């Protein structure tokens, strides 16, 4: 069953501008988070490969994957809620690591599960670029102050 969610009201460039203006610290050390596309049901985002996101032993770190999940869900929300979405806050994220990702880009596929007036629930699947093997899966919940 597909959930009907609001269509994006902002494009990827406009969402990037909002994030850059209100949360410039997200790019501290290097710009590694990117919006690949906005979709009917959510968004596709990317964590670019960078040494700051690697653990000893040559794998993408858990905190980097967590950041990608949070960023991707926030992108999907902003695309639909516009500037009002800036006030949304993460209330929970449940992240499951499925397999060890080798160094390289990680793609996040975000699907909005619920987009209510106050509560927004998203699902995030993360894959190593060029692979169909799931490296992590998350469910994130946000609340819109009101």
Can you offer a commentary on this structure?
The protein has helices at residues 12-22, 62-81, and strands at 33-38, 42-47, 54-55, 59-60, 89-97, 106-115, 119-128, 134-143. The chain is globular and about 45 Å long. It is α+β, with helices and mostly antiparallel strands and 146 residues long. The longest helix has 20 residues, at 62-81. The strands form 2 sheets. The chain has a 6-stranded antiparallel beta sheet, with helices on one face. A two-stranded antiparallel sheet has the order 3-4. It is 21% helix and 38% strand. It has 2 helices and 8 strands; from the N terminus they run αββββαββββ. β3 (54-55) and β4 form a beta hairpin.
Can you give keywords for this protein?
alpha+beta; 146 residues; six-stranded antiparallel beta sheet; two-stranded antiparallel sheet
Biggest beta sheet attributes: 6 strands, antiparallel
Output the strand order for the largest sheet. 1-2-6-7-8-5
Q: How much helix, percentage-wise, in residues?
A: 10-25%
Total helix count?
Answer: 2
Shape: globular
Radius of gyration: 14 Å
Strand count? 8
Derived structural class = alpha+beta
Q: What is the CA-CA span between the terminal residues?
A: 29 Å
The quaternary organization reads as single chain
């Amino acid at each position: 069953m597909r959930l009907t969610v609001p269509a994006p009201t902002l494009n990827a460039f406009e969402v990037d501008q909002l994030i850059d203006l209100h949360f410039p610290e997200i790019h501290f050390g290097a710009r590694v988070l990117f919006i690949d596309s906005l979709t009917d049901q959510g968004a596709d985002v990317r964590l670019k490969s960078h040494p700051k996101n690697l653990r000893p032993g040559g794998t993408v770190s858990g905190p980097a994957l967590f950041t990608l999940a949070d960023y991707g869900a926030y992108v999907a929300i902003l695309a639909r809620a516009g500037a009002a979405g800036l006030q949304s806050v993460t209330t929970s994220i449940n992240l499951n690591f499925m397999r060890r990702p080798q160094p390289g880009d990680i793609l996040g596929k975000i699907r909005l599960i619920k987009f209510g007036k106050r509560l927004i629930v998203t699902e995030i699947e993360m894959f190593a670029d060029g692979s169909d093997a799931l490296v992590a899966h998350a469910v994130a919940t946000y609340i819109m102050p009101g």
